[in-house]
UniProtKB/TrEMBL annotation:
GO cellular component terms, semicolon-separated: membrane
Annotated ranges, domain Platelet-derived growth factor (PDGF) family profile: 29-94
SUPFAM superfamilies assigned: Cystine-knot cytokines
Name of the protein this chain belongs to: Platelet-derived growth factor (PDGF) family profile domain-containing protein
Superkingdom, taxonomy of origin: Eukaryota
Organism of origin: Chionoecetes opilio (Atlantic snow crab)
GO terms of molecular function: growth factor activity
Length: 157
């Protein structure tokens, strides 16, 4: 039973599913509204925290002629949707500039080297601390500056 479940939900090949057709701008709805296409959605991966996604090299654009309705008016139009040919498990995530991608966990994390540099500055007596929220070295305190003076966040003075 487990083998059959793995075969039907594993990320090895796309399976046929109902896909909503896009409604062109200026129209209320289209008929037919759905088509059967092969998709990778809903399939699972065994390894790490990857997602089952289509291989970009094997995506086909399918074009359908449908009736598009605007109020009581009907017109023939063409709409296109993507069909997946091959699925693969991968981590598909983009991280902000201040984070790096941990491929094993498939999540964005603070750069360990930046944390080490901050800790070294703290060990050298600089009034800094590591902020996990913004993945950066921050000053322990920010006092008010005298008139005409500017605070330097890098030097904490």
């Amino acid at each position: 039973m487990m083998h059959l479940l793995k075969e039907t939900t594993g990320c090895n090949k796309p399976y046929e599913s109902l896909v909503q057709l896009p409604v062109p701008e200026g129209y209320d709805y289209v008929k037919p509204s759905v088509v059967k296409l092969k998709r990778c959605a809903g399939l699972s991966c065994d390894f790490r925290h990857d997602q089952c996604l289509p291989d970009e090299d094997y995506i086909t654009l399918k074009t359908y002629t449908v009736f598009a309705f605007k109020g009581s008016e009907r017109e023939c139009v063409q709409v296109s949707v993507k069909e997946h040919g091959v699925c693969k498990c991968k981590c598909d995530r983009e991280c902000p500039d201040y984070q790096v991608l941990d491929l094993w966990a498939c999540k964005c994390v603070c750069d360990a080297k930046m944390r080490q540099l901050c800790n070294a500055r703290y060990d050298d007596g600089e009034p800094v601390m590591w902020s996990e929220d913004v993945c950066s070295c921050e000053c322990n305190s920010v006092p008010d500056c005298d008139h005409g003076m500017l605070w330097d966040d890098r030097a904490c003075r």
